[in-house]
Amino acid sequence: MFTPAELLEINTLLTPENKIVILTHYNPDGDAIGSSLGLKHFLKTKGIHAEVIVPNDFPKFLKWMPEAKKVIIGEYKRKLAFDMISGADVIFCLDFNSPSRIGLLGEWLTKASAKKILIDHHQQPENFDFVYSDTVIPATSQMIYHFIEALNKEQLVNLDIAECLYTGIMTDTGGFRFRSTSAATHRIIANLIEKGADPSVITSNTWDTNTVSRLHLLALVLGRIEVVNDGKVAVLSLTRNELKEFGFQKGDTEGFVNYGLSIAGVKMSAFFMEDLYEDFIKISFRSKDDVDVNQFSRKYFNGGGHINAAGGKSDESLWDTIETFKKKVEGEVF
Fold it and tell me: What is the pTM of this model?
């Protein structure tokens, strides 16, 4: 958490007169949007207006959250995003640890004169004016709740805040399944439920909204799942042509990588997908126990993330990337 002196200084910055912007990472997920909107709604309770800006669009299944449709998408509204970042007095940087993680917004953030406040749970954060970094906490949305607590403003948490933070925590813990989920996480979830967050409604709005294209793609992925490395590693993949054939929409492949971990004996799952427009391969890694996919991805696939959840990319073809992965993973001891 921020030091008491830092909290005091941050609190003096949070005034209705200051222009406040909230940024999150490229390809925003549930925690990115949940933490950003949760913070926005908290500031609103203090009479402070803040704008949420994301580098690119996010999945439809997250757009049910309060004011999600007011989020400014940088790739669609570049001038507006640039003007807001350049003119901001305070910029909250949520769920990313480096300007390089926010695409076209990164250069604008670096040049902005605003005070920059980082709240993030990824490893190896870069320098910001104020840094709250904790890699043990499973979701940035949980960190936003801790931030509210540290300001002694827990009583301001309302339904809008509760729904957003609950969604962020739920999605980034895999439905509270990942080992980083702690007793503190569950206590916060209980508090959010008491504030009005309805687990059944949130779960339904977020996860029970499959498109036909998603189900077709999932059937295809599961139909050719491969297990290697003595049954400890699962490999899943999709080609660009397959994405086009079944009418891929943003968010359709969310969570596919987790199916590999559901296989008995599998310790690591990797999902490889050709980008729809550019010539590179997106890679998602998930793992169990002490299998560190963050270090694996950093070492071999120009990526990173958390011990049990990371991402990477490759400029090789899809099948060459998978072959490279199989060779590299052979040397790992699980």
Answer: 0.89
